[in-house]
Target: Ribonuclease T
Amino acid sequence: MSTTQSFNLLSNRFRTFYPVVIDIETAGFNANTDAVLEIAMITLKMDNLGWLHKENTLHFHIKPFKGSIINSDAIAFNKIDPFNPLRGAVSEKKAIQSIFDIVNKGIQTERCTRGIVVAHNANFDHNFLMAAIHRVNIKNNPFHPFVTFDTAALSGLVVGQTVLAKACKAIGLSFDNNQAHSALYDTLQTANLFCELVNRWKRLGGWPIHNMKT
Model:
């Protein structure tokens, strides 16, 4: 394999990390006590020329875990009715297991070592994801326990905006505020934003690093 081909492997782009874009809608701000209401995730792939694209998508409405807190201000903001029978909600355990299956398969296919959460204000989503994983007690967690890629920070660097809608518009992506705060829509937009940030860096000549040792 040539040096150029090697740089175009997903495993070499992010130090063997497998990026997984995630958005979680919740019933509050406390990851240990407040209910998870929605989880969406999108995996990413790199084409033969080294451009980053979206790949697999999963989206779940989640049943609040037993004893969880549902703050009225939170559900008024995200407009989610946790008890609507038409939501088709599943348990945290079923959603987490499905995510693990997709991520572990991607890690193996791409010859990566572990998944890394990509999210907008990533600390929030990462904390809720780790708390849910702890609650359902599923082994072989593929995600890094504390490292994340935060598109808010990256967008602040590249386009001077940290709000998701403003960052998307600043970099040339559309954003529908009426669909915001849906886990699926926010994950889609975050994935589009992250891919554009990474690909723009490549177009500007920032990747591959030409003095990188092979």
Summary: The beta strands are 17-26, 36-46, 52-61, 114-119, 143-150. The chain has a mean pLDDT of 94. The CA atoms of residues 137 and 179 lie 33 Å apart. The longest helix spans residues 183-203.
